[in-house]
Amino acid sequence: MPVESGSGGVSAAGRQAKQKRKSHSLSIRRTNSTEQDRVGMQRDLLEGQESKLPSSIRSNLLDLFGQIEREFENLYIENLELRREIDTLNERLAADGQTVDGGDLSKGPLKAKASHSTSQLSQKLKTTYKASTSKRSHSFPGKVGGPCNFNVGNWELWGGDSWVTALLPPCVPVCMNSPSMGLIVSSFKATTSRALCQLAKEYVGHRDGIWDLSVSRAAPVILGTASADHNAMLWSIETGKCLLKYVGHAGSVNSIKFHPTEQMALTASGDQTAHIWRFVVQLPAPQPVADISVPCEDDVDFSDKDDADGEPEGPSECPSVRVASTVLKSHQGVVIAADWLVGGKQAVTASWDRAANLYDVETSELVHSLTGHDQELTHCCTHPTQRLVVTSSRDTTFRLWDFRDPSIHSVNVFQGHTDTVTSAVFTVGDNVVSGSDDRTVKVWDLKNMRSPIATIRTDSAVNRISVSVSQRIIALPHDNRQVRLFDMAGVRLARLPRSNRQGHRRMVCCSAWSEENPYCNLFTCGFDRQAIGWNINVPALLQEK
C-alpha cells in the first residue's frame, strides 16, 4: 500500500481508523455526559405511571435497574474498545502479510491474554493480601498494588470471577460471576432445606478481611479470628464482644489455632513468622438471644445491598497483647497456616517457600523440615488424636506426613485435583476431606489413596473447609460469598441464608465447627470483615442416612 508524502509513514487507512476512534471516543463522552439526564427522564416517566408497589420499593427497583443498565453499557463500551484494538492489530499485521484470524479472541496474538484462567487471577489477588506487610485499603480500589497490578474494571471482559465480584461494591451486579456472563439471575427457585439454620451472632471489629478463625478447645471456650489488618482477635461467642487483640505481627495474619489444653494461641503471618502468645480473658455475662432463625435455602438469593462498606464499629476498649512468648522464624516466605500437634508440645507451619516445618514449642527449635511440594503451600492440619499432619499446596496435591514412629516419618501423596488444593482436613475415622480451586471437594480414605470415596462438585472455588464430627457435615466456604453444607456422602444439605440483612457480603474464607457449643456450632468468616456464628441442626433421621 503506497504511503502519502508528509504523512510520517501513516497510511490513509490508518488515518481513517484513527478518525473513527476519535469520533467514537467523542460519542462515548457525550453518552456519559447525558446518562444522568436520561436516567432522570426515565425515572420521571415511570414515577408518573400508576403502580401498586410502595414508593420506597419502587424507588429501590428503579435504582437497581439503572445500575444494571449502566454496568452493561460499560461492558459494551469495553468490548468496543477491545474490538478497536483487534482492528488496529490487524492493520499492523496486514502490512506484514499476517492476520489475527478474523479478529477471533480464541486465536492469534491475543490468545495468551484472553486465556488467563479465572482461578489464576483470583489467586493473584488473594496472594496480594496474604503477603502484605503494610496495611491496604479494605475498599479494594480499581488497581491492586504489588505483583498483581490488575485492573478490576476489565475483569468481566476476560470471563469474570466470583471472588472479584465479591470484593466489588454492591452496585456491580453479581450475575457476572459466570465465565460465560450469560445469566442475569441464576435461579429464584426455592427448594426444601434438609438442615435448620439460625444466625446466632455477628463478630465485627476487624478493619480488613478475615482469613481464618478457630474455636478454643480448652475453657474458656472463645472464638479467635485472623485478619489482613495485621491483628488477631479473641471474642466472646455468646455476646460478640472482643476480649483481646494480638498486635504483634508485622503482616497479614493468615491463620489462628488454639492450644489443646492451655490458654495459648498460634498465629501465622505474612511477615514470614509464626507466633505463640498467651492470653487471659474474662467472659462477660451472656445476653438474651434474639430468635432470628431462618431456614437454610438452596437456590434462593436476595438483594445485595451492602450496609457494611463503612468503617466497622470495632471494639473501642479492647485490651491488646503486643509481644509473643515464642517466635518461630525459619521460613523464607509467607507463613500461610500453622497448627498444634496432638499434646501441644510441637507445632507445624506451612509456608510459600514450599516447605512445612515442625517445631519444638518449648525451645522453638526446628525438628523437621517437610519438603516435597512443587509449589507454595496453602494450608496444614493435624490429626486430633494421632501424630499425623496433612499439607495442601498449589501443586494440586496434598501430602500426609506420619510422625507416629519417632525414629522415622513417612509421607503419602494424594493426587486428585486439577487446581490449587486450598485445604485438607482430618475427619471421623481414617478419612481426609480436601477442597480445591477446581470447584470440587473430595473425601478420601487414608487406606486407599487411588481414588476418593466421594466427590462434591460446586460452582465456585472452595476455601478452608471444616467437618463436624458429631453431625458429619462438611461446611464449604466459597469465593462467591456462599456457604454450603454437605454430608460425608456428598449429598447437599443446605446453603446458609444470605441477604441484605444477614450472611456474608464478600468472599467467605474459612469455616470452623464448635461441636459442643449449644449457642452456635458453626462459624464462618470472610472479606466483609466479619465473622458469623450459626446454629446448624440436621434431623437425626438424615444423619443416620
Multimerization status: single chain
Gyration radius, to the nearest Å?
26 Å
**Percentage of residues in DSSP E strands:** 25-35%
Proportion in helices: 10-25%
**What is the β-strand count?**
29
CATH fold call of the largest domain: Methylamine Dehydrogenase, Chain H
Q: Which stretches are low in confidence, meaning pLDDT under 50 for 5 or more residues running?
A: 1-10, 99-118, 135-192, 298-311
Q: What is the mean predicted local confidence, pLDDT?
A: 77
Give the spatial strand order of the biggest sheet: 2-3-4-5-9
User: What is the CATH C-level name of the largest domain?
Assistant: Mainly Beta
Q: Can you summarize the main beta sheet?
A: 5 strands, mixed
Name given to the CATH homologous superfamily of the largest domain: YVTN repeat-like/Quinoprotein amine dehydrogenase
Distance between the termini: 76 Å
Number of continuous helical runs = 7
**Strand-pairing-aware structural class:** alpha+beta
CATH architecture of the largest domain: 7 Propeller
Tell me the count of domains. 2
Overall outline = globular
